[in-house]
């Protein structure tokens, strides 16, 4: 009867919760422990509908975890066949190798999916932009004179702002928008 006291786990993992005390009798189907698989982990994220057609299995994902200094590069392993009707987003999954055990199941992570690794954009420091009445502007230098240039911005990250419209590569702008002034024209 001693052989009946050993229950092999179906996979390697860690015990998260114990539902039965040692020496207790258990019934068929009664939960005994909750096992957690910690290697590999699976990151689940959502891609907005407007980018969903560009998502592919094998695509690079940069995973940032607050407690880990360096981002991990993982790859999309599964894509849901349908959009979520409430959020209008597509669920995807990436396998995260965790042989070093530095990550825990259920930990929060943010991901960047690299849709086009060859894409380029114009990025300026946040200090180079000024906002007035809901309109963002940069001070563009043309022929030695700084002039206001309305810009349309995109993503903001780490003190930098993507400029979607209003500037072209090679434009010179003031690094501190607070220094720009509208010139007074004398008649």
Helix-residue proportion: under 10%
Q: What sort of overall outline do the alpha carbons produce when their principal axes are compared?
A: elongated
Strand content: over 45%
Largest sheet data: 5 strands, antiparallel
Mean pLDDT: 86
SSE string: EEEHEEEEEEEEEEE
Adjacency order of strands in the biggest sheet: 3-6-5-4-7
End-to-end Cα distance, whole Å, is: 106 Å
Low-confidence stretches: none
Secondary structure: number of strands: 14
Total helical elements: 1
Give the radius of gyration: 27 Å
- SS class: mainly beta
Verbal overview:
- The structure is a single chain.
- The chain has 187 residues and is an all-beta fold.
- 2% of the residues lie in helices and 45% in strands.
- It is built from 1 helix and 14 strands; from the N terminus they run βββαβββββββββββ.
- It has one helix spanning 49-52; strands spanning 14-18, 33-36, 41-48, 60-65, 72-84, 89-96, 109-113, 122-125, 129-132, 135-142, 145-150, 152-157, 160-165, 172-173.
- The strands form 4 sheets. The chain has a 5-stranded antiparallel β-sheet with strand order 3-6-5-4-7.
- Strand 5 (72-84) and strand 6 (89-96) form a beta hairpin.
- The mean pLDDT is 86.
């Amino acid at each position: 009867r001693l052989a009946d006291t050993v229950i092999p786990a179906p996979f390697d993992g860690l015990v998260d919760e114990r539902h039965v005390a040692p020496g207790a009798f258990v019934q068929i189907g009664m939960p005994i422990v909750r096992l957690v698989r910690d290697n590999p982990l699976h990151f689940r994220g959502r891609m907005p509908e407007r980018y969903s057609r560009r998502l592919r299995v094998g695509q690079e994902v940069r995973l940032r975890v607050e407690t880990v200094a360096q981002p991990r590069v993982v790859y999309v392993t599964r894509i849901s066949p349908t959009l979520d009707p409430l959020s209008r987003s597509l669920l995807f999954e990436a396998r995260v190798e965790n042989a070093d055990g530095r990550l825990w199941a259920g930990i929060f992570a943010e991901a960047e999916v690299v849709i086009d690794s060859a894409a380029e954009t114009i990025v300026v420091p946040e200090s180079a932009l000024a906002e007035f009445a809901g309109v963002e502007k940069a001070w563009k230098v043309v022929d030695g004179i700084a002039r206001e240039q309305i810009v349309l911005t995109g993503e903001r990250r780490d003190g930098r702002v993507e400029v979607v419209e209003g500037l072209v590569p090679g434009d010179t702008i003031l690094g501190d928008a607070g220094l720009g002034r509208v010139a007074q024209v004398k008649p």
